[in-house]
Write a structure and sequence with these properties.
Blueprint: H1 18-32, H2 45-78, E1 88-97, E2 105-107, E3 112-115, E4 120-123, E5 127-129, E6 135-145, E7 156-159, E8 166-170, H3 184-195, H4 203-213, E9 219-222, E10 239-244, H5 253-264, E11 273-276, E12 279-291, H6 300-314, H7 328-336, E13 341-352, E14 371-374, E15 377-380, E16 382-386, E17 400-413, E18 419-425, H8 427-434
Parallel strand pairs: 10-11, 12-17
Antiparallel strand pairs: 1-6, 1-8, 2-5, 3-4, 3-7, 4-6, 9-10, 12-13, 13-16, 14-15, 17-18
Helix pairs in contact: 1-2
């Protein structure tokens, strides 16, 4: 029969409480006095003496019972274990202009936005709402740390200053990342988990170790023996780890070097470890939706931004693991669930082809993508197109993931069937590809 395991219970040198100490002391006095001292009524001086003595013993036992944990924490302190004091919460907020206001509105960096409960968030970047735009988005960070700042959708609703042309602010996604002071129990669990990291054996051991050492939100994958033969560059290491930052981009050589130095100290003798970079495929998404313009009559560009956000939120390396595929139907359902969407007329996801590294052998009209000129028009080449006809795409590359590059959103008003098209370009990704 297999062994049965359970949690280690706290060590108590004496488990008695004050009431138990009073009872034991009264019994001892009665027996030792052969029944002569027997008045233990509430008004008896003997009861007062016994209860006072029991209270003093209870206080002493509290500190004696705390000694094992105190010794444990002192030992962990000597090992360099640190206690997390918490983390700040982060949220994306949307600033909305006054309807009909046609001038540019600028919300300066450092502006405070608040909840109804006076929880304060600080704007991390300047938000500029152009003449024709009706809204703009920015990132805010909580003023202090704690899980109380992980507020829900629509809770951020006030600004601490008056700005000409600005109507209000809200958050369409919940705030996240706020953490409280680490409890002693969690501290001990974390500490003993770190102590178990002295020797790395399984793929899970290497994965967990590297994620601890890598920057926050990094993506990682320890390749299996079979997967190593499905990538182009030959690898002779026993353990191959694909590692990138939150967007799948390569980490700096200094960070990778520090990670490898730390990992190699914990591997068995004769085991070699190497780190490779992920391969990111740019994706262009196009969606056409119909909305009820009688109910949702204003802020059309905000609706388009919401659709673009829903797409970008799913087509990124954080959501699509290395070697995995994106889910067309899930993305379709996410867009259809938006309150202003009446119908999703069409949706397609196109995987763009990047230009070969040796550009002399291939001339593109739209570098860095593979593109050809047809009838004086530059047409991009696609590796695959996923739509309602073909909803699946098989990713055979174990170190490849996907990132949204461009989103084209067409909104059709249900009453007039008049279309309006918005194009959203991931400028950070575009700068990276063209650099």
């Amino acid at each position: 029969m297999p062994d049965i395991y359970g949690p280690i219970l706290p060590l108590q040198l004496d488990p008695r409480n004050t009431a138990a100490l009073v009872r034991d002391t009264q019994t001892k006095i009665f027996l030792e006095s052969e029944g002569a001292l027997n008045d233990f009524s509430p008004a008896s001086p003997l009861s007062a003496i016994v209860e006072g003595q029991a209270f003093a013993q209870s206080e002493l036992l509290y500190y004696i019972n705390s000694l094992p944990e105190a010794y444990t924490l002192q030992w962990l302190r000597q090992l360099g274990i640190q206690r997390s004091v918490g983390a700040k919460s982060v949220a994306e907020v949307t600033f909305v202009k006054v309807r009909g206001f046609t001038r540019t509105v600028v919300v300066p960096r450092g502006t405070l936005v608040l909840t109804a409960g006076e929880l304060r968030f600080v704007l991390k970047n300047e938000v500029r709402i152009g003449d024709t735009a009706t809204s703009g988005t920015g990132i805010v960070e909580s003023e202090k740390w704690g899980s109380v700042y992980n507020v829900g959708v629509g809770v951020i609703e006030k600004i601490n200053i008056n700005i000409l042309g600005l109507d209000g602010v809200t958050n369409f996604t919940p705030a996240s990342g706020g953490k409280d002071l680490e409890t002693v129990e969690n501290l001990k669990a974390k500490a003993f988990s770190l102590l178990r990291r002295r020797g790395l054996i399984s793929a899970e051991d290497y994965y967990n170790e590297i994620l601890i050492l890598a920057p926050a939100n990094s993506i990682a994958k320890v390749l299996t023996y079979e997967e190593r033969f499905n990538i182009e560059n030959g690898l002779s290491s026993n353990v191959v780890v694909c590692l990138g930052d939150s967007n799948g981009e390569a980490l700096s050589n200094e960070i990778k070097s520090n990670i490898l130095k730390s990992v190699r100290k914990k591997v068995p003798l004769g085991v070699s470890v190497s780190v490779i970079e992920p391969e990111i495929s740019p994706v262009e998404a196009s969606v056409t939706i119909e909305y009820d313009d009688t109910e949702f009559s204003s802020g059309v560009d905000f609706y388009a931004s919401s659709v673009s956000f829903a797409i970008n939120n799913k087509l990124n390396p954080q959501e699509i693991g290395l070697g995995e595929e994106f889910n067309y139907q899930e993305l379709f359902n996410n867009i259809f669930s938006l309150d202003f969407v009446q119908a999703v007329k069409a949706m397609s996801i196109k995987i763009l082809k990047l230009q070969p590294e040796n550009t002399d052998s291939y001339v593109s009209c739209n570098p860095p993508f593979r593109a050809n000129t047809v009838d004086d028009a530059c047409i991009d080449e696609y590796e695959a197109i996923v739509d309602s006809v073909s909803e699946t795409f098989t990713n055979t590359n174990p170190i490849r993931t996907f990132r949204s590059y461009k989103t084209i959103v067409t909104l059709i008003a249900s009453s007039t069937q008049a279309p309006i098209t918005y194009t959203f370009l991931n400028t950070d990704y575009d700068d990276l590809l063209r650099s």
